[in-house]
Specification:
By secondary structure, this protein is α+β, with helices and mostly antiparallel strands. The chain folds into three domains: 118 residues, no CATH class; 137 residues, Sandwich (Immunoglobulin-like), CATH 2.60.40; 204 residues, MetI-like fold (Orthogonal Bundle). It is 57% helix and 15% strand. Strands 1, 3, 7, 8, 11 and 13 form a six-stranded mixed β-sheet that branches. A three-stranded antiparallel β-sheet has the order 2-6-12, with no helix packed on it. Helix 12 crosses helix 14 and helix 13 runs antiparallel to helix 14. The longest helix has 35 residues. The chain is flat, with a radius of gyration of 36 Å.
């Protein structure tokens, strides 16, 4: 009689071995996958935990000092991780004993502890700070509110500017500029005095205030905000700041004002010779006429249309190139000989490599290749679409009914005829579904690759954000959301008709 019973390691020995090498007892007890998984989990937790402790106390030399310093900075995280890691190690030994004694009930609980440890490590490594998120919400709300409701920047009116100016001599001498000539019925401004010194920077780059001049104006529109502008001797204009705010003054009921202004900082080039006469100007900007689309709205519509067509062109090219590739990547069609199987493995490997590289990275490569603009975005999306659609199409081909293929081959049809009459008719519904889905993905990705110069709405959006123009950025965000929603509805309707 043959004894079919295999020798098993005793439970106590399995536990001791897992205390020495975590998971070894499970492996010797016949639970290879379980033992390897537990060993890899504990090893990963120990490596990640040690790395985090080193980051928290990188200046300490010994690991004991590092652990004490890290526990002082993050006591909850360090103590919890350490206790749970020791508990996991002991649990692995206990689990090895149970596995060796065939007591498998409740064996999944150990993996809950593994997940808790990985969650704790992930919380620390990703630097989640809920307190900071809540505390800094008031500071973030002003720009967020502009993004959520940006329509003040979507439309504008034509403006009418009225103003008056006065000359200011930099560095007083015996012949300062005279007061401007006052014309009845027109705005008027004068400076007292008509000369002075500009603000400068000291050796610590701190502003040393310049001369204070008194600006007196009259003849302006009453009770209206009036902007103060400054122009240097070569005509460059800017708005001076005082107390971190642009200088502006409100006229009284008679349209007059009086205001003290510190002469601003302005760098005078060394090549400048002779008298340097600057100019101060008071301007009132009035909106007239009806609402007209503002530049942010027009640019957003233009870039959104560009984004949609980028996604469409990339999807079209992706379909054209991925269809023939998908047949080469389908195992059921390429299993006829070792040559076709070699082609299958090579094609699959290339598709996996290309698909693993995100479109954003392909966009960076394409920008270096063809320069900034939508063409670079189309190239990036097309390359990724070929790999993604090729994989989806090939998997759909592998799942088709083999009956028609065998029937067509039984008639003596060649490889091409088999594909045309047995494979293609079964592939139309999934091909349509995958193609529409990819178009939806490409339109969404078009908004992202623009961030690295790939054209489309993303390129405009990142410019607005860098300029802190949150209302203009909000217009772009709204158009992205609305466009994606519409495309989702359209793609659902197309799928309903063809599938």
């Amino acid at each position: 009689m043959v004894n079919n019973k295999t020798k098993r390691i005793p439970g106590t020995a399995a536990a001791l071995l897992s205390l020495i090498v975590p998971g070894l007892g499970q492996i010797l007890a016949g639970q290879l996958r379980r033992g390897l998984l537990l060993f890899a989990s504990l090893a990963s937790i120990m490596v990640l935990g040690s790395w985090r402790v080193h980051l928290l106390a990188h200046r300490e030399i010994t690991w004991a000092d590092k652990l004490i310093k890290a526990a002082g900075r993050r006591p909850f995280f360090v103590i919890l991780t350490l206790v749970c890691a020791v508990l996991l190690w002991l649990w692995i030994a206990w689990d090895a004993r149970r596995q060796a004694d065939k007591q498998k009930k409740g064996g999944a609980g150990i993996f809950v502890l593994v997940l808790v440890l990985f969650f704790s490590l992930g919380w620390q490594i990703s630097k989640i700070d809920l307190v900071k998120m809540v505390a800094e919400l008031p500071d973030a709300w002003p720009p967020l509110s502009k993004i959520l409701w940006p329509w003040e920047r979507a439309f504008t009116r034509e403006t009418e500017v009225v103003g008056a100016r006065a000359d200011i001599l930099i560095g007083c001498d015996d012949s300062p500029p005279p007061y401007p000539v006052e014309i009845p019925g027109q705005p008027y401004i004068k400076s007292e005095p008509t000369c002075g010194n500009l603000s400068t920077l000291d050796e610590n780059n701190k502003v040393v205030k310049g001369s204070v001049i008194t600006l007196t104006g009259r003849g302006f529109a009453p009770d209206t905000l009036t902007e103060i502008w400054w122009a240097d001797s070569i005509g460059n204009e800017f708005r001076p700041r005082q107390d971190r705010e642009y200088v502006a003054v409100q006229t009284d009921a008679a349209g007059a004002f009086e205001f003290k202004l510190v002469m601003p900082y302005r760098l005078i080039p060394p090549s400048a010779v002779g008298k340097q006469v600057h100019r101060v100007e008071a301007r009132q900007v009035t909106q007239v006429g009806g609402l007209i689309p503002a530049d942010p709205l027009k640019l957003t519509i233009e870039r959104m249309a560009e984004t949609i067509f980028m996604g469409m062109m990339a999807t079209l090219f992706g379909i054209i190139f991925s269809i023939p590739i998908s047949f080469l990547a389908a195992r059921n069609l390429m299993s006829g000989s070792w040559i076709t199987m070699t082609i299958y493995y090579v094609t699959r490997t290339i598709l996996n490599i290309v698909r693993a590289i995100e479109p954003l990275i392909w966009a960076l490569i394409a920008v270096v290749w063809v320069g900034l603009g939508p063409f670079a975005g189309i190239l990036a999306l097309t390359i990724h679409s070929i790999a993604a659609l090729g994989k989806l199409y090939s998997e759909a081909i592998e799942s088709i009914d083999p009956g028609p293929i065998e029937a067509i081959r039984a008639t003596g049809a060649n490889h091409l005829q088999t594909i045309m009459f047995a494979v293609v008719p079964q592939m139309i519904p999934p091909f349509v579904s995958f193609s529409i889905y990819r178009w939806d993905i490409n339109v969404r990705m078009s908004t992202i690759i623009g961030l690295v110069g790939g054209g489309g709405i993303g390129f405009l959006l990142v410019q607005y954000i860098r300029l802190l123009d949150y209302r203009a950025a909000g217009i772009a965000v709204w158009f992205i959301a609305v466009t994606v929603s519409i495309l989702d509805y359209v793609s659902a309707e197309i799928r309903a008709r063809f599938i």
